[in-house]
Amino acid sequence: MERYPIADSADLAARFPSDFRWGAATASYQIEGGAREGGRGVSIWDTFSHTPGRVLGGDTGDVACDHYHRWREDIAIMRELGLDTYRLSLAWPRFQPTADGGWNRGGTDFYRPLLEGLREAGISPLVTLYHWDLPQWLEDRGGWAGRETPQRFGDYAAHVAAELGDLVDTWSTVNEPWTSAYLGYGFGVHAPGRSDPAAALAAVHHLNLGHGLAARAIRAELGDSAKVSAALNLMALRPADPDSDADREAVRRLDALDNRAFTGPMLDGAYPEDLIADTAHVTDWSFVHDGDVDTAHVRLDLLGVNYYTTTTVRALGEGEAAIDDPRGQDMAQCRVATEGIDCVPQAGEVTAMGWLVDPAGLRDTLVDLSRRYPDLPLVIMENGAAYDDEVVDGSVPDLDRTSYYSQHLSAVADARDAGADVRGYCAWSLLDNFEWSWGYHKRFGIVRVDYATQERLIKGSARWYAEVIAACH
Ligand code: FCB
Predict the structure, then answer these.
(1) Among 435, 441, 442, which residue has the most ligand 1 atoms within 8 Å of its CB, making it the best to mutate?
(2) DSSP state of 373
(3) What is the pTM of this model?
(4) Cβ neighbours, 10 Å, residue 28
(5) Is 435 a catalytic residue?
(6) Fewest CB atoms less than 10 Å from the CB: which of 78, 164, 294, 311?
(7) Contact between residue 73 and residue 455 where contact means Cβ atoms under 8 Å apart
């Protein structure tokens, strides 16, 4: 097989309709910096990253890509690449910095010109309300493990809809609630760094509830025509041995925890019964109050899908220990009520995160979703790969990343051919940025950032992506 299978950009573009939306994504804490500017309050990621030992190399988002000051330059890059859509997130602590709940003008003052700048450049803003930078004062009152946070999230959604709604094309409520709940409250590797399985499941519910409250607040403010979505990182799970009942049962359990814990309330209007039964030794789910699930079950205009890799799942035998996989293939292991389950590394090409390059998982995820929810259009809100890029003579020849994009876009086209209603695609990420607990050690950008000088350098993958976009339109 070719080392780097890369489709011809025109051939690939021909597989998409001319109104397909091409974009790139970022998140506030990962790129903005300006951590103390404009009256911004402290977020859980400020606290976490400033706690020794939490983030590789002690990196923080204090400066990040300095997008807070350089957003004009970044919009110019997006325009040069021909992007239709830019998926960004708003930093909640810029709007509600302190516990008194008062609204800080600094939030609107930063995002309004940015959104206007995008519109002037012909780029539609897709705005995520929550990409993990919870105000610290809310965490101090229980964070997503408690009920105040979803209520406040609804207030915040109403506020930003009123302030910015005229400039936003599509809203996305929560980004990857799986990650917030399990990695933040169960596994402790993300902010707020708690390791409490019951709190993690409470967080699952409160993120679902917050999603519903925020979606409803946006529509109450802007009317029914406001476009609302959420971004889920549904796990593409495979049994290690498809003939093993035990492995298939392990997949069922993880599917309940990883996927149906979110699609259940959000899209089906109920928590799966098997999830409640499987987790009975952790919690009695009494944090689910009457009416909550109806609130979470809100009509969506589209569903965001974040996809990186597949996960192969195996049932452990009696007394057998899970393999701690240094390559990171156990990223779907939510570590909450997963006793007796292991995620096993698979042979094949991996990215710098150790994640298997497996585009078929994206196709399968999209096709499966479209069969289950035939009236729900899909947008890939994140897909991309980290590699150890090199700068060669002033450019970044990142063929491995270009190949990753080529293979995954081909998988999206395959899913469309199989009937999936996929309307758009956002590369993760526009810029190299603060990759959470990995700090600046993992580069996901299609544009390189030199953190010493803040110089941007368009990588080969971005040039190829721009060719696909141009050929498509
Ligand atoms: C996703 C996150 C995004 C980025 C990518 C690599 O889980 O939503 O912020 O970190 O992974």
Answers:
(1) 435
(2) S
(3) 0.98
(4) 29
(5) no
(6) 294
(7) no
Contacts of 270 (CB under 8 A, 6+ apart): 264, 293
User: Using CA atoms, how far apart are residues 311 and 315, in angstroms rounded to an integer?
Assistant: 13
Residues 6+ apart with CB under 8 A from 333: 254, 311, 322, 341, 342, 343
413, HSE (Cβ side, Cα atoms, 13 Å)? 17
* Cα→Cα distances 240→68, 311, 312, 346, Å: 45, 9, 6, 9
Pocket of ligand 1 (CB under 6 A): 27, 30, 175-176, 179, 233, 306, 382, 428, 435-436, 444
Q: Which helix H or strand E contains 424, and what residues bound it?
A: strand 422-428
Hunting for tokens 């790969």 — which residue is that? 385
Percent of the chain surpassing pLDDT 70: 98
Mean pLDDT along residues 72-86: 99
CA pair distance 248, 359, nearest whole angstrom: 22
- List, as one string, the DSSP characters of 116-174: HHHHHTT-EEEEEEESS--BHHHHHTTGGGSSHHHHHHHHHHHHHHHHHGGG-SEEEEE
Tell me the per-residue pLDDT of 229-269, one tens digit each, with 9 for 90 and over: 999 999 999 999 999 999 999 999 999 999 999 999 999 99
* Cβ atoms 219, 367 nearer than 8 A: no
Q: Which domains does the chain have, with CATH numbers?
A: 9-472 (3.20.20.80)
Q: What are phi and psi of 197, to 5 degrees?
A: -55, -40
Q: What's the pLDDT tens digit per position in 105-144?
A: 999 999 999 999 999 999 999 999 999 999 999 999 999 9
What number does the ligand 1 atom closest to the CA of 442 have?
Answer: 6
User: Average per-residue pLDDT in the chain?
Assistant: 96
**Residue count (the chain):** 473
How many Cα neighbours within 13 Å face the side chain of 95? 24
Element (H, E) at 312: strand 310-315
pLDDT digits 0-9 by tens, 119-128: 999 999 999 9
